[in-house]
Amino acid sequence: MLQISIQKSLILFAVSFLFSFNSFSQSKEKQNDKCLVILGAEHRYTQVANTKNSTQEVIDNINSVIEKFDSDKIIYVYSIHKALYISKKGPKMGLDSIGMIRDERLNLVNNNIITKKEVNAFTDKGLIQFLQKNNTNDVVIVGFMADYYVKETLLGGKELGYDMYFIPEAIMGKSERNKEKILTKMIKKGIKQLPIMH
Question: Who wins on pLDDT, 79 or 82?
């Protein structure tokens, strides 16, 4: 009777050990079922955000998140802005491409880059085509700036029926307080928060 009880205990221990090991290893695996969208990591935003220390921390966190995704499931979204140029012939409207220079601290793992003209990245068909090509409905948003691009892209994706996620540590806002306020509103709208994946 004692021997049967010990055998049962060993079997239960082995099953619980395997279950906990499996859960641990899954948390370390790459995010194969989700696509990662990186917003606004251009000099225009990274140089004017909060402070240099907090900007570096956010970039480090974005780079950490990038490592957890298959490179084919990552897309970088840059913004195009209209600008007024003064020339010898007078003022002229054009596109500001100087501000589109990527912050070199951000890891670039592929050539999946689109440009957008609106604050909501889903207004660009390139993002939707990218998600369709990857056959996913799960979209994780990180980047700059929570107050505009992150917020509007999260809401835009949700409106189109995508399951939207964000990682707070990999997002920069005008201020930490403002970012927290916006991300709290996103949670209330059914957008999910993910933990930083170190």
Answer: 79
